[in-house]
Amino acid sequence: MTKASAPGKIILFGEHAVVYGRPALAVPVTQVHADVEILDADSAGIWINAPGVDLQAELNTLPSDHPIASVIHNFLFLSRQSPSPTSTGSVRGLTPLSGGEGKFPNLEVNITSTIPVASGLGSGAAVTVALVRALSSHLNHPLTDEAVNAFAYDIEKLHHGTPSGIDNTVVTYARPVYFVKGQPIETFKVGAPFRIVIGDTGISAPTKESVADVRRLWEGDKARWEVVFDEIADISFAARRVIEEGWVNMLGELMNENHALLQSLTVSSPELDRLVSAARKAGALGAKLSGGGRGGNMIALVERENADEVSSALISAGAKHTIVTQVS
Ligand code: PMV
User: Fold this and answer.
1) Which residue from 2, 62, 18, 309 is spatially nearest to 170, judged by alpha carbons?
2) Using CA atoms, how far apart are residues 190 and 141, in angstroms rounded to an integer?
């Protein structure tokens, strides 16, 4: 039996602007995770059990663009292209295998996840990363982190249009990442640990749509929105320094400023704004939406003493649940 796990993630600063080449900061959230277990099966086929998404099926009964099936098809295709694909994991341009070609191993694949779906916590990327790692070790095709990341990015692109790649990167490396699209991975140090409360609106909001809406805005007035993206970039740049130096108190104001710019990009929502202001009223040092917006999660910077108070205030203001996480 082989097991692999991957954490959730939150974007601290820079979402949306990151799609336009600006930096963003994201950190893993280890309190939630996707877990994959693979066993050799007695009966022919690849049997997938993912009770969280109500899935119990043999691989070839699923459409080849099914999010879980596409990971397995592409991994099998990739592993046949190269006997030991340690340095490249790209599935770009590869057509998924159809069931009739070649012989599949007989496997039982069990997938569970505690990461809320479609809420900006990186659940899709975490399932992909855990699944590809479990497959690569069970089938003896070792992959480097770089290859896992490239593979997961290609899978994200199959399902999400034009993702920046931040989700798969943080989830793969499970470390704080200063991310600029197309540039080598930069992790960063956390000078002094700090605490974040994550509040879930419970509204599932496809990132693809908010990203497309921002693109429409930008196409309508590029000069105006480029200025907004530059302002967000300045915040991300400053936030990295502030985090590295451990000047946690300065981080809250940067979050508030980033939220206001995201509001101007039309990606907040009444529910997110309600949670953001409830957190601030309850004593958070700052708060903002996190991820694609419109629904999903918001984050609040808190001191150890007021984490519970902010959590309760979020629940009273309509959050479906909260997670307290320490960034270190
Ligand atoms: O909704 P999430 O957490 O997957 O984050 C999306 C972040 C965006 O910047 C809005 C899009 C992207 O691909 O980076």
Assistant:
1) 18
2) 34
Listed residue (123, 237, 119) closest to 170, CA to CA = 123
Specify whether the CB–CB gap between 162 and 20 falls below 8 A.
no
CB 207 within 8 Å of CB 122: no
Q: How far is the CA of 163 from the centre of ligand 1 (A)?
A: 7
**Tens of pLDDT, residues 196-236:** 999 999 998 888 899 999 999 999 999 999 999 999 999 99
pLDDT of residue 286: 98
**In this model, does residue 298 exceed pLDDT 80?**
yes
Q: Which two tokens stand for residue 277?
A: 């202001």
Structure tokens at 160: 């999400």
- Are 24 and 88 a contacting pair, CB within 8 Å? no
Are 157 and 163 in contact, with CB atoms under 8 Å apart? yes
Looking only at the bridges linking them, the beta strands covering 107-113 and 46-50 are parallel
The chain-wide mean pLDDT, for the chain, equals 92
Catalytic position from the list 35, 154, 167, 200: 167
Alpha-carbon distances, residue 131 vs 21, 43, 267 (angstroms): 29, 21, 31
Q: For 96-149, what is each residue's pLDDT tens digit?
A: 434 444 567 899 999 999 998 878 899 999 999 999 999 999 999 999 999 999
**Structure token pair of residue 45:** 């086929």
pTM of the full structure:
0.90
The answer to whether 179 and 198 have CB atoms below 8 angstroms apart is: no
Question: Are residues 72 and 135 in contact, defined by beta-carbon separation less than 8 angstroms?
Answer: yes
Residues in the ligand 1 pocket, defined by CB under 6 Å: 11, 15-16, 18-19, 120, 122, 163-164, 166-167, 207, 211, 291-292
User: Do the Cβ atoms of 77 and 98 come closer than 8 Å?
Assistant: no
